Amino acid sequence: NYLLGVGRADCTGPVAEIPLMGYANPDQVGGGLLTRLYSRAFIMADLNDSKRVVFVSADIGMVSQRLRLEVLKKLNSKYGDLYRQDNVILSGTHTHSGPGGYFQYTLFWITSKGLIRPSLDAIVNGIVKSIDIAHQNMKRGRLFINRGTVENSQINRSPFSYLENPATERSRYSSNTDKEMVMLKMEDENGQELGLISWFAVHPVSMNNTNHLVNSDNMGYASYLFEQEKNKGMLPGEGSFVAAFASSNLGDVSPNTRGPFCVNSGESCNNPQSTCPVGGATMCMAMGPGNDMFDSTRIIGQNIYFKARELYEEASQQVTGPLISAHQWVNMTDVSVELNATHTVKTCKPALGYSFAAGTIDGVGAFNFTQGSVEGDPFWDEIRDQLLGEPSNETKACHKPKPILFSTGEMTRPHPWHPDIVDVQIAAIGSLAIIAVPGEFTTMSGRRLREAVKREFDSHGTPRMDVVIAGLCNVYTHYIATYEEYQVQRYEAASTIYGPHTLSAYIQLYRGLARAIATNTVQDLPRGPEPPVFSIGNFTLVPPLVADRVPVNKTFGDVLQEVRQQYQVREVAEVTFVGANPRNSAENATEHNFLTVERYAGTSDSWDVVQNDASWDTRFYWTKGLLGRSNVTIEWHIPQGTEPGIYRIRYFGHYRKKLSNSLTVSVPFEGTSSAFEIT
Does the pLDDT at position 591 exceed 90? Predict the structure, then answer.
């Protein structure tokens, strides 16, 4: 038995004009909201409350070092040393449709347009708030673990890299992706359901890089379905049951199960370079199972949810035993790895290879770079040398056979471009060991890591540990491919930033943590070198907020394009309002709702809210016009099972008003559609 607490809080941030984090596509900026983003927190403590472990899964691209440091600073000022570097795991689901701009290393500024304080603050505050809620609701309870296979939800997007791994190793596995879901179920001592954490390896990229609506993708949809089912009668984002669908070793795993096709010709481009005969690599895109990206998100999310529900209902294996956590900071540019008695190798200063610029079949790059480049290109090399400086011979040699595009470890202006100091962390909850990894391990990298950690526990008297990888934790260091995958330099390998022996270094480090946990010597682990915090003001290329304006004879919230009078289920009710920049609202409140769908209750002559902006059935679009004008369009995709009756759609915003040269205020307003009937 343990003391358990769960919490969920909004971490959406600004939904307009902020670049979305994930595809590194500068054109992909927020233009509205499909569904809110949440931080979900789980606290486990032993009954005498001497030890605690916190696991947080947030609907964001990844946890950045800046984000982690700010969260831990806030926790420290609230709770002293109850929540610390070693016992707090922060993991990102890896949605590619959340706001960016929360990074302190310069590389991530290029596509995020700098460090965007409102974006960073929303995530920091949301994570801390979710932990607060869990902290305030601790009660005695039980943990159960279960595992099972999820079908039809992933493909390996670099199968030719996977095939480079030794045949003897590959023959031990039935698939080139990890299909296993691991699930941790929580209930209190009276059997009252509290929540669950599920770990499953797939990229949340069912929504592609043409999307401009902030959302939590397939994993978020699975959370939504589970929470809607358990929090009966509640609006999305409300209710006490918390269901987290967390990331794992998803490095080379795509949900776009139909595989890669040439957009222009329809033929397959499942080749080692992912290129098309006409148009090259930029034309090669993977397709999901649905008719469009919304439909694909729904199908994949539903598959994951159905499996989780089954595992949840059948979970009977109880988790018991002590809580122990271990954490170290490591200078990843300088780790010596003993491969065997005679052979020692080293990691490198960070660098990105050519194929990094190619992107993947889930989101291609901008300049027709191709994956699998083991040669550089004199044209791009010359541009890079002029702009950013040439990589040193030492770095070139260390990264071989990677042709270096950006020698980020040697780029320090205005701040370092990539982290040197990286977190490694394991938390053991009884027989479950959670390995918190700082990036995206490929399928085979993850298998090797889990196996090595399990073996380490076995050989130090803690057999039968369940070992699970939590992805995108604590600091972002791109990908971790195996040494063999590294040799063919597809995207994942080109993005393995500390060189060919990155995985071996991590395995050595995590084995050290596992050994310390198993032998109860965690207190003897060196803390390692503390990561830097750069003093960065609001350095950003995001356009400044201007005063909002309205068309002649109109006011904020006026309807420009009205709903129809009647709809049937499966149709789309749509209304357009005179709008204002949604960023004004984000800076006012964390819990701001942009819209409601309301149903008329004749008996009480009142309107009841049936949907809000966290619903997957509503879409909120913001369109920027000239000179401070803008429109908002709200769609409600009326779902099967909607009760017939009279409905209306409401819009809530804030407009920015200039009082004087130095003073602007945000003024709340609302708009309401005409009533319409659903028959």
Answer: no
Flag whether 356 is in a domain: no
d(CA 572, CA 557): 20
Give the number of other Cβ atoms within 10 Å of residue 432's Cβ.
Answer: 20
How many domains, in total, are found in the chain?
2
Cβ-based burial of 66 (10 A; exposed 0-12, middle 13-18, buried ≥19): buried
Same domain, 110 and 172: yes
Other CB atoms within 10 A of residue 396 CB: 17
Q: Which member of 216, 254, 373, 431 is catalytic?
A: 254
- Report whether pLDDT(475) > 80: yes
pLDDT number for residue 537 = 72
Q: Which long-range contacts (CB under 8 A, 24 or more apart) does 164-169 make?
A: 164/482, 164/484, 164/485, 164/487, 164/488, 165/444, 165/482, 165/484, 165/485, 166/484, 169/444
Q: Mark whether 569 and 471 lie in a shared domain.
A: no
Tell if the pTM clears 0.90, that is, is over it. yes
In a domain, 36, yes or no: yes
Structural domain for 500, as ranges: 2-331+418-524
Q: What residues pair up with 193 in beta bridges, in sequence order?
A: 187
Q: Is 254 a catalytic residue?
A: yes
Which whole number is the average pLDDT over 513-530?
Answer: 98
One domain for residues 520 and 608 = no
DSSP letter string, 478-491: BEE--HHHHTT--H
Q: What's residue 587's pLDDT? A: 63
Residues 12 and 99 in one domain: yes
Phi then psi for 96, rounded to 5 degrees?
-100, 15
Q: Residues at the annotated binding site for Zn(2+)?
A: 94, 203, 440, 479
CA distance 27 to 345: 41
Does 642 share its domain with 509?
no
Which tens digit of pLDDT belongs to each residue from 451-460?
A: 999 999 999 9
Instruction: Identify the CATH number of the domain in which residue 591 sits.
Output: 2.60.40.2300
Kindly state the percentage of the chain with pLDDT values over 70.
99
Q: Are residues 516 and 575 in the same domain?
A: no
∠ CA 634-640-642, nearest 5°, is 70
Q: Is it the case that residue 590 has pLDDT exceeding 70?
A: no
Residues 388-406, mean pLDDT to the nearest whole number: 95
pLDDT of residue 380: 80
Do the domain assignments include residue 609? Answer: yes
Residues 593 and 516 in one domain: no
